[in-house]
Design brief:
- The two termini are 25 Å apart.
- Helix 2 crosses helix 8.
- It contains 11 helices and no strands.
- It is mainly alpha-helical.
- One fe (ii) ion binds next to helix 2.
Length: 224
C-alpha cells in the first residue's frame, strides 16, 4: 500500500519566503515543535498529491500552524479578547484551542501572510469549521496524522486519510469528541458544525489517485 511518505515535498512546494518563515519558526518554537510543524507541512503536501489543494499554501500553513502553541493560556486569552476573536464559550474554558486563531492573527499582522487560504488553514486547525477549504481540511488532518504522532487509533486514521478525506475527518472529529468528553472539556461549536457539514454535504474533495479509489466499507471505529 502506498504510504504518505511516498509523496515527498519538491522544490516547487516551497513558498518563495519559506526560508524567512523557517528562520522565524526556528526562533519561535522549540526544536520538537518545529519538527512537528515540518512534518505537518510534509504530510499536508503528501495529502495534496491525493486530494488536490495548493501544496505551497498547505506547506506554509503547516510550518506556521503551531506558532502560538507555546503561549500561556492567559496570553492567548488576552490576545483573543483584545482582538475580538472569541466565538465560543469553549475558548474561555479551554484557551489552548485559541492557538490556531492567534497564530493566524500573528501570521497576518506580524509576518505579512496575506493569503486567506493559508490564514484559514492556520486558524481552523484546532477547532475546524464548516465550509473549510480543501487546504484547511488537509492541514487539520495532517496535524493529527503526521509521522511523529502516536496515539490509539492513529493507524486506522492514517489508513483512512489515504482513502477518503471526508471519512478521515469525520473519524478524527469523533475521536476528538470522545477525548474531550473523557476530559470533561467542552466541545467547540465550530467543530460540531464542521461535522454536520461533512456528514450532510456531498463532498467535492475526491482523489484521483488509484490507491485512494477504494470505498471505506468495513472500517470499525475503535474508541481510544
Ligand atoms: Fe496546534
Ligand atoms: Fe500541530
Amino acid at each position: 500500500m502506498t504510504e504518505l511518505q511516498d509523496f515527498i515535498m519538491s522544490p516547487e512546494d516551497y513558498d518563495p519566503k519559506w526560508p524567512y518563515y523557517l528562520e522565524l519558526m526556528t526562533r519561535q518554537l522549540s526544536a520538537k515543535r518545529l519538527e512537528h510543524s515540518l512534518k505537518v507541512a510534509e504530510t499536508g503536501v503528501a495529502l495534496s498529491r491525493l486530494y488536490g489543494g495548493d501544496p505551497v499554501k498547505i506547506a506554509l500553513a503547516g510550518l506556521l500552524h503551531d506558532s502560538a502553541k507555546e503561549m500561556k493560556d492567559r496570553q492567548l486569552l488576552a490576545i483573543a479578547e483584545e482582538q475580538g476573536m472569541i466565538t465560543d464559550p469553549a475558548e474561555q474554558e479551554n484557551p489552548s484551542i485559541l492557538h490556531g486563531p492567534v497564530a493566524a492573527w500573528m501570521a497576518e499582522t506580524q509576518w505579512g501572510v496575506k493569503d486567506p487560504i493559508v490564514l484559514e488553514s492556520i486558524r481552523y486547525h484546532t477547532t475546524a469549521a464548516p465550509h473549510m477549504s480543501i487546504e484547511a481540511c488537509i492541514v487539520f488532518l495532517a496535524d493529527l496524522i503526521e509521522p511523529g504522532r502516536s496515539y490509539q487509533g492513529i493507524a486506522e486514521l492514517r489508513a483512512l486519510a489515504l482513502i477518503d478525506l471526508k471519512v478521515a475527518m469525520l473519524e478524527s472529529i469523533d475521536q476528538t469528541f470522545i477525548f474531550l468528553d473523557r476530559k470533561k472539556v467542552p466541545v467547540h461549536q465550530g467543530m460540531v458544525a464542521c461535522r454536520q457539514w461533512l456528514a450532510e454535504t456531498e463532498f467535492e474533495y475526491q482523489t484521483n489517485h488509484p490507491e485512494a479509489n477504494k470505498k471505506c466499507v468495513d472500517f470499525e471505529r475503535r474508541p481510544s
